[in-house]
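Minutes, project check-in
Item: structure for the 352-residue chain
Input as provided by the requester:
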Amino acid sequence: MYHIDKPEESTYDKFRTYKIKKGDTLASVAKDLGVEADELRWYHNMYCEIQDLIEADFKSYSQFLILAPEKYIEERKEKEEKKGQKVSLGNDYGLPFLPERINERYKVKYTFEVGDHVDVTEMAINVKWLATDKNRYHLFEINRSKIVHINGLPPSSLIEKLGAKNAEMLYPLKIVVDKFGKWVDIYNYDEIESRWENLKNEILDYYEGELTEAYIDHTEKTLTNSDTLLRSLRSDFFFRTFFNGIYVGYTADYSFKNEVSFPLEEEVEAIFEVMQKITPLLDDDGFIKIGQKGSYMDSGLGFLYGYTPSKVNYSAIYFLNSETYTIEKMNVECNILSDKYIKNTIKIELLE
C-alpha cells in the first residue's frame, strides 16, 4: 500500500488575498488597490502567521497579502465619507425616532461593583418594533436569550437559577413606547400572568425550601396587577437605558439641560440633572453621538443605603446609526462616591 501526501490547505485559503509579485511594495499595492498602506498592513497583520507580519514593507519571501472582505472595505469607505458630516435633525431640531426600522439583537453586559466585589452578567436581547397607533405610541417585542452568563459561567446557585426561570415568565415581553422613545407601559400582562401559573408548578416540582417559597411569594406580589409588574420592571437597567426618551427636541447648539430618572436599587428612583448633548458632527465611525452627564438632585440617598454618599454621578453615551437613528451601541454608568464605592455599568452593542 502506498500513501501519497496531499498538500495541506494553505492557512490563507479562507481569506481574500493578493499574490505578491516581484517588484511589488506595500505602497505600490496600496495605490493599485485604492487602499491606504497602513490599512492594508493593519488588516493583514491581524490574521497572518507571525513570520508573515508586515513591518516597513513586504519581506523578501512574502507571497500573499491578506485583504479585508469587499463588504468590510465598502463599510469603511462609507464611514470615511460620513466622518465629519453634520448631524441631520428634524423640524425644531428634533432627533427623529424611526421605530419601524428596529429589529435588532444586542449583546448586553451589566457590571455591578461594591467596593472590591464585582459581578458581571451577560446576555443577548432582541428588540423588535411591531406596530404604531394613531397617537404615535409604539408597540415593541423584547425577547431575551435563555443563555445568561454570570461572571462568565451559567447560573449555578439557586437564586441565579430562579432568576433564569423568571425570564421564561417575562419573555417575550411586549411594551408600549411613546413618541420620544420612552418606555411607558406593559402590553401583554395577561399573557405573562398565564405563563407564571405553568412555571410556578414547574418550580415547585424541582425546587423547595424557604428561598423558593420567598421567591414565589415575591413573584406573585409583583404580578398582583399590571401596575405592580410595571413598577417592578422599571428597575430593569436595559429598559431604562435603551428606552430612555432621547428622541426629543434639542437647542440650536445641539444641547439642553434635562432630568433623567434611573433606578439605584429595586423600585427606587433617583433623579439626575444632566446636560444632554449631541455632538454636532458624526464621529469617526459615522455614528451620531449623544451624551448625558450629571449628578443626583436630592441629598436623601442616605435613607436608601444607610449612609450619606458624598456624590452620585450619572453618565450615558449613545451611538446611533446616522441613517436610521437606531441605537448601535451605548454605555451607561452610575456611581456612588462614599465610604463604600458603588458603581453600575450597562454596555449594549449590536450583535453581528
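Outcome recorded: The CA atoms of residues 276 and 292 lie 4 Å apart.
No further action items on this chain.
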